[in-house]
């Protein structure tokens, strides 16, 4: 299946010649030996090393590999599988904010098992994250790039998945086809309530609802699903890894951190809300009922 990766400098298609990718305007990019392509050019960086650090990436990798969040992956995969089956044609899919690649790899396995013709791209702004992701699968195009400046040919992506990262609807709009879909996963109000209760004097139940922002950018919600379950952390390593992969890590007081470092088990609530979006007025060919 043809790739739709674009040059981050001029927007022209990038074509591979061995490990070197080039556009018609002569811009070239060499694939790293680990198997990923760095398309985050200097003028698009806000810092020297944007995105998650290696310590944060490895904490996330350990926790995700423990399968604690596998039900989230299963929910996403079932949703995307039904969407792809409804399309009945080859599809281009971008996982934006793919991190170290756990969800992307499992999605690739499901699409492959059902023999659905597709190209799958994992995109993250953290080079450390993409380097780890590239070790998971050689059947995915792993790209270091910004979600706000997705490195794809204009209006070539059929589906964008985006898990637990900032909304970038303008970047999505440039990449998505007119009939394309966006699937967003965000945390519900009670997500990690027990951990937050240890950190804060008062826990606020304020789930992120992406619908108003997406509506402002011309998208309508065409489906929604909530997942809620209890998960037990059985070691201090898991507890500290979980803390490292959340924004709460920056807000922990020293005395609370010391208390967390002594814990060896903790049961937490996992609550995730999935929303699917289409451009307003687009023909909706998949999930149109709340679950």
Automatic annotation (TrEMBL):
InterPro entries assigned: Methyltransf_25, RlmA_N, rRNA_m1G-MeTrfase_A_prd, SAM-dependent_MTases_sf
Gene3D superfamilies the record matches: Vaccinia Virus protein VP39
CDD domains attached to this UniProt entry: AdoMet_MTases (cd02440)
Keywords, sorted A to Z: Methyltransferase, Transferase
Entry protein name: Methyltransferase domain-containing protein
Domain 23S rRNA (guanine(745)-N(1))-methyltransferase N-terminal: 6-48
Gene Ontology terms, MF aspect: methyltransferase activity
GO terms (BP aspect): methylation
Domain Methyltransferase: 93-168
